[in-house]
Amino acid sequence: MIGLDGFTVEIADRLIAEGRMPNLARLRAESARWKVTDEPYRNANLAYEQISSGMSPDASGRFSSVEFDPATYAVKQAGADNPPFTAGLNGKTVVFDSPFFNLCKASNTEGMVGWGAHGHGMPDGLHARPASLAQEITDRFGEYAAKEYIYGFWWPDPELMRRAGVALRKGVDQRTDIMRWLIGERITDWDLAITVVSDAHSATEPMWHGVDPSHPLHGHPSAPVAKQCLEEIYDAIDRHIGAMREVAPDATIVCFSVHGMGANGSDVPAMLLLPEVMYRYETGKKLFDAPTDWKDAENGIPIVSPGVPWDRIILNAMRGGKVMRVADKIERGYLRAKHKWTHTASADAGSDEPIRFPLKMSATRYSKSWKTTRAFGYPSFHDGRIRVNLKGREAHGIVALKDYAALLDEYETMLRALYDPRTGKPVIGKITRPVMDDPLNCPGNQSDIVAEFEGLPVSLGHPVLGSIGPAPYRRTGAHTGGPGALYIHEGDVAVGDYGTCSAFDIVATVGKMLDPDFVAPSGEPFLVPLLSPKAA
């Protein structure tokens, strides 16, 4: 299994047409091919948790990576709690750096995770089985070249963009060397080998404006650098695909991406503006008010100086430009320490305790008011989420159950009135009410209203609340692209296009190919089309 995290088929199509990515071009030409959809679960923003576990949110109960505690009103980010799907296989798996892959819960799986994945979902450090493998890999291949660039606010700085791009491209080549050794020399008695390349994920989020001519930042000086860097990372991914076929020439190849990437229209409204809207709507006060120079920015898009993290820029704006308090300096130092590789852990040394991480997001700055308002903007990485402070569910609930439906109607009317001051267009698309049938049993990772954003707003307008923002873009790319892709190649596969499958069908099919008794947590196995009839 070759997982391509954050991989966009349209970019690959263009590069193949330009004569680049020959290994992917050859694999496509020799494979059975499907488009891949992860709908209706993309808003959970847990694509690789769903791949590693094989569970849809309906099966796992994970509807978001952000969890709210109704007893304390605290929020945290969830890690890799569920067992990998390989734990249910009758065979041996070797894995390298698959996100949200909890080796502790798959005793029949060897390898290493937590090396350089984008959102690995495990406590900091390298997790390996056998434990000695982590040191072996570090001694032979070094630490991940792009460990400082897995996440980043880079678009304001062309030079930082260039350094990040070079490091991420080197990271892909490191992966290739590690996998050649890992499955070709170190652990050779495997039935299933899994490699996930997540460098395109880490790169595309801050570099999308370089490959999207319609993006408002496409004219920024960092855009040409972003385009070049991202394309070179795709070149390295192509080398990785070719190397995997060389090191295991007789293996069935299952190469896939879950979905493509696109422009990011959610960071600013989800992480800042909608929580501010709810705060103003409920309290009549302001916490965030954009600085004058942001309000006067050309085209309504603030351009900020490089070198200051986005969250710090927003926090300073919330304080009217005041310097950090001592507590925030401590917090900032903690965050720097948190992202250092601090230890190596044996995969056998885990526990059954849930894995949770502190969540540092602008939306959490409103949490002091959550106990005293009817509802609030719930932190989210992808869409707008509103959580009602409901009696009988939240410890300090205000809203009676009999008033619940009417209140959601009120909020939906308010949301529909929001527009983008730059374009004059509405910013709210589809609105859902996930727990309408049973609001008292809303889990901590779910909300009462989920609102999808449209366009690329950096400010919001409302006929009563006025203008909220603008704020600078945080990331230019997000999980908003089209379908992913699946290519299955084996000796007697019937080459061709076979429509669309669910991302969960990939896991179900691979499991059934390896083990006829495998029962997938979610999804349905399909028959791989062969020249001679044979069940997958």
Strand content: 15-25%
The appropriate CATH architecture of the largest domain is: 3-Layer(aba) Sandwich
**Main sheet properties:** 10 strands, mixed
Name the overall outline. Answer: globular
* Main sheet: strand order: 11-7-6-5-8-1-9-20-2-21
**Number of spatially distinct domains:** 2
Q: Helix segment count?
A: 14
Q: What's the total number of strands?
A: 21
CATH class of the largest domain: Alpha Beta
How much helical structure, as a percent, in the residues? 25-40%
CATH topology of the largest domain: Alkaline Phosphatase, subunit A
Mean pLDDT: 90
Quick one: CATH superfamily of the largest domain?
Alkaline Phosphatase, subunit A
Radius of gyration: 23 Å
Ranges where pLDDT stays below 50 over 5 or more residues in a row are 323-343
- Alpha carbon gap, first and last residue: 15 Å
- Structural class, by secondary structure, is alpha/beta
Organism: Croceicoccus pelagius
Protein name: Nucleotide pyrophosphatase
Which labels suit this protein?
four-stranded antiparallel β-sheet; Alkaline Phosphatase, subunit A; 536 residues; 2 domains; ten-stranded mixed β-sheet; 17% strand
Task: Describe the protein.
The protein has 536 residues and is of the alpha/beta class. Helices cover 32% and strands 17% of the residues. The chain starts with a strand and ends in a 22-residue tail after the last helix. It folds into two domains: 281 residues, 3-Layer(aba) Sandwich (Alkaline Phosphatase, subunit A), CATH 3.40.720.10; 207 residues, no CATH class. The chain is globular. Helix 6 packs antiparallel against helix 7, helix 6 runs parallel beside helix 8 and helix 7 packs antiparallel against helix 8. It has a ten-stranded mixed β-sheet, with helices on both faces. It has a four-stranded antiparallel β-sheet with strand order 13-14-16-15. A three-stranded antiparallel β-sheet has the order 3-4-12, with no helix packed on it.
